[in-house]
Amino acid sequence: MAPTSASTRVHVDGRVLTLSNLDKVLYPETGFTKGEVIDYYSRIAPVLLPRIQSRPLTRKRWPDGVEGQPFFEKNVPRGTPDWVRTVTIASPGSTRGSEEVEYVVADDLPTLVWLANLAALELHVPQWRVGPRGGVRRPDLLVVDLDPGPPADIVGCCEVALLLRDLLDADGLRAWAKTSGGKGMQLYVPLAETSGDATTAYAKEFAEKLARDRPDLVVASMRKSLRPGKVFLDWSQNNPAKTTIAAYSLRGRSRPTVSTPLTWEEVEACENAADLVFGPDQVLDRVEEIGDLVADLDSVRQRLP
């Protein structure tokens, strides 16, 4: 898709969209434009959509580019087309207990392109889905966020991820790894639907065990003063109110990077943080060459011990 400054009407899977300011630079360091963002999301859609379908989306938007002020958006924005799927549910994090949020649910390519045109660079999803009539289901993923405290980096995260893989394997659970698209990474464990309390308790248990076994490398406490030089295992991401960056989503950093699924061989071989930094073109090439590394997440349903 060639970037242009004028608005452009396009047909996407039977929907008509108006795309605007396609030549607007959203990543000044590299000159990556909104048109290129839309192009990436259009081309990565076959593997991205399964990761976000039926999951209420929290979007992080950069209308003025990554050097401007971003904002998180949960509710549908004004002007949302009537063909975009939305679902209204009680906010999981509401302290009042009665607050409702009308979320966007991106189940198709037109919705994904529409979001990209809004400069929704980052797509964040919970570990649970909604049913066809909007009913909230129980979590079907356990996620562990590995967050390195400088000077630790993703190399340390890989070392910890391998330890976690062994712990999970001992409990009969298979895990998938991906980069966060930033400085850290995440592990996903697909589950038969279970409660958020159960996934959180289990994740906290093995995070604290690993922190006891490897206090030189791992911290499971929320106290930020303990994190420098170690990898924080954020087990709290399993709280139903929390969201995690979706696999294949862009990140709003100085350069366009992508949250990228990894092979365990790549995790084992990582010796330099730059080894696991992937841009949009690289990710598209990876998918063409080695396929969707997280495709099995939808077919594997494991049970917590």
UniProtKB/TrEMBL annotation:
**Domain of life, per the record?**
Bacteria
EC class: ligase
InterPro entries reported in the protein's UniProt record: LigD_pol_dom, MtLigD_Pol-like, NHEJ_LigD
Any idea of its EC number?
6.5.1.1
Q: Please provide, alphabetically and separated by semicolons, the GO molecular function terms listed in this UniProt record.
A: DNA ligase (ATP) activity
Q: Which UniProt keywords apply?
A: Ligase
Q: Domain DNA ligase D polymerase: where?
A: 33-293
Presence of keyword Ligase: yes
**Short name of one Pfam family:** LigD_Prim-Pol
Tell me what this protein is called.
Answer: Bifunctional non-homologous end joining protein LigD
Report the source organism. Actinopolymorpha pittospori
Organism lineage reads as: Bacteria, Bacillati, Actinomycetota, Actinomycetes, Propionibacteriales
